[in-house]
Amino acid sequence: MRPFLATLFFALTAHAASFELEAIHVVGLHRLPEAKVIAALGLRVGQMVDKPDFDAAQQRLIDRGVFASVAYTYKAGPNLRGYAVTYEVAEIETVFAWKFEELPGPEAELEKLLRQDPLFDFKLPATENVLQRYAKMLSDHLKIPVVGRVYGDRPGDPYIVFRPNRPRAVIAQVAFAGNNAVPVADLQIKMASIAIGTPYIEENFREQLLNQVKPLYEIRGLVRAAFPKIEVKPAGDVEGLAVVVHVVEGEPYTLADVKVVGAPQELADAGEFKKDEVANFGLIFEGVSKMRQALRGNGYMKVATEVKRSYDDAKKQVTVFVHVTPGPQYRMGKFYLTGLDIVTEPYIRKLWGLKEGDPYRDGYPSRVIQRVYDEGLLDGVGAIEPKLNIDDRKLIVDVTIQFKGTPKATEKKRKQF
């Protein structure tokens, strides 16, 4: 620092007087915009400040509950009239999505209220200060007790909920309206085991409908079946909620075609798809599984598939696109037999048809073992266990088949060999 600047800065700090705030900076930010953090500081360029003002602004940021640490430095300002202050912060890294639940009024209005706080964001740290501050803002606005809590009912995806300060109501009954193609008993059985006795959260409940109930329609070709309305009210005769799901079944669709993306179209033949028949998505997914098995049987051990659909609503047809990612092709490495004597081993080794360097066939060891059992090739055999040693770097699969007990080939089978 030049001598006259140093002299000025010493004069400013030594007398602890108020001087103009010329500049404010915040460093260390990754998620939050600097302008919003400056707004939360409560300082403004041009005001008269001294060190206690900087201390108070630091405490305001700490009290927000969104920073792991807050420090600051100050020096002579660029115009030599006062101070330039820099706050160095470390944001709390773990943040969660948030939602409103069972609060009266439009959610857009509630979000607008909370966004009056400059540090309110699409994701928030779940610190006590954060949860209590926004819950209080909602409580004051709605005139009801509101609480903010983290919930983990979505596996691997915890989130913050602002809701009335009372226990969540649980589902006591589930009924369906508008269904004809699927017996209501089948629908209720599917939902009862996973929904009854759990808190009602519309997002989770709809996900359960898609996972458990929608497939009952899709095996009938009712691929456009939807659940546009869900009614929720207190159950009349038991404690809890009665949920009524309104179903729009639509008309059955036929399977127009199955197109393969990322692999030869001939792979679809392995799926044995029934085109121009009702689009039974239970059978379609089984067919896609057969496609994967066909590729694994040719060494593509890590094949992955994704199913997408295209609807022709005028013709009531659906085209299925199977996106295939074959992955690398693995080949047969070494083959070992353990637990057999030197007389018996050659007879069993003849059953093994894969040669070193051939594409590895997934499931082949189990088929060979099953043949040993089915044809009674050995006496005194116990468990037979295959062991695979997969080398992902060399793309090689070594196979060891372990025989337990005292296996020996019978005289009759020796002659057959």
Brief descriptors of the model:
417 residues; Ubiquitin-like (UB roll); 4-stranded mixed beta sheet; 33% strand; extended
Give an overview in words.
By secondary structure, the chain is an alpha/beta fold. The chain has five domains: 3-91, membrane protein fhac (Ubiquitin-like (UB roll)); 96-164, Roll (Ubiquitin-like (UB roll)), CATH 3.10.20; 171-248, Ubiquitin-like (UB roll) (Roll), CATH 3.10.20.310; 254-325, membrane protein fhac (Ubiquitin-like (UB roll), Roll); 331-416, Ubiquitin-like (UB roll) (Roll), CATH 3.10.20.310. The protein has eleven helices and 17 strands. The strands form five sheets. A four-stranded mixed β-sheet has the order 2-1-4-3. A hairpin with a 4-residue loop joins strand 16 and strand 17. The model is unreliable at 1-7 (pLDDT under 50).
Radius of gyration: 34 Å
Major sheet details? 4 strands, mixed
Tally of helical segments: 11
Strand content: 25-35%
Mean model confidence by pLDDT: 91
Query: How do the strands of the widest beta sheet line up side by side?
Result: 2-1-4-3
Report the CATH C-level class of the largest domain.
Alpha Beta
